[in-house]
Amino acid sequence: MLDMLSIDGINMIIAEDPYAKICFISNLIRGIKNSRVLYFDLDTLFTAYIKNNIIKLNNNNNNKVDIFFADKEGLEDMIVDACSIAGHTNLKLIIFDSLHGFYHIYAYKGNRFITKLNQLLIFYISLLLNLSKEKGCPLLVTNVKRLDGKEPKTNLNRYLWAKSSVMLYVRVADYYNTLTVSIIRHTQRELNGKNMVINR
């Protein structure tokens, strides 16, 4: 599954169901061997599922997943620590999960700071994108939203659309036994509009 992702831009995962994006990510990590993954768990959902054995990672693949949490002070320390680790390891994937989790961290500031938060989010994602290109590994960003929802023309949405090389819509089906991946955008244009089915 890692081959589906690009190192030339953001890989965006869109899901209406948060469980679907966690299933996609866990399948992705299980498919990697002998590597390191940096995971920014901004909504803490991934960590909760792991701790409660709802989602399991295959530790036989000799992977190391470094999970970072942010607090109301922001993401600065977390990103500094991640950059330090990235400089000394066989990094294969960076995951920023998720956009709505980022806004939740700063919810106490109120709506009047939304423009500044958008600028801050663009800065952080740009920093991680540069890090991923330097290490030659994909950056995966997740967003929980309705696929058919109309997005406002904000600087953030323009940035994400311009910088996303791969956009995938994921959902679970068949009583949560199957994961369906719809390819909205891909660097290999012949894949646009295709669907994949992954058995969990």
Secondary-structure map with pairings?
Elements: E1 10-15, H1 18-30, E2 36-41, H2 45-51, E3 64-68, H3 76-86, E4 91-97, H4 99-105, H5 114-135, E5 139-144, H6 155-163, E6 164-173, E7 178-185, E8 195-199
Parallel strand pairs: 1-5, 1-6, 2-3, 2-4, 4-5
Antiparallel strand pairs: 6-7, 7-8
Helix pairs in contact: 5-6
Characterization of the model:
With 200 residues, the protein is an alpha/beta fold. It has helices at 18-30, 45-51, 76-86, 99-105, 114-135, 155-163; strands at residues 10-15, 36-41, 64-68, 91-97, 139-144, 164-173, 178-185, 195-199. Strands 3-2-4-5-1-6-7-8 form an 8-stranded mixed β-sheet, with helices on both faces. A hairpin with a 4-residue loop joins strand 6 (164-173) and strand 7. The longest helix is centred in the middle third of the chain and has 22 residues, at 114-135. It is globular. The protein starts with 9 loop residues before the first strand and ends with a strand.
User: Could you give the order of the helices and strands?
Assistant: EHEHEHEHHEHEEE
What composes the largest sheet?
8 strands, mixed
Which assembly state applies to the chains in this document?
A: single chain
Q: Largest sheet, order of strands side by side?
A: 3-2-4-5-1-6-7-8
Q: Give the CA-based shape.
A: globular
Terminal-residue CA separation:
13 Å
Q: Give the amount of beta strand, in percent.
A: 25-35%
Structural classification:
alpha/beta
List segments where confidence is low: pLDDT < 50 over at least 5 consecutive residues: none
What's the average pLDDT? 89
Count of alpha/pi helices: 6
Helix-residue proportion:
25-40%
CA gyration radius, whole angstroms? 16 Å
Please count the beta strands (DSSP E, at least 2 residues each): 8
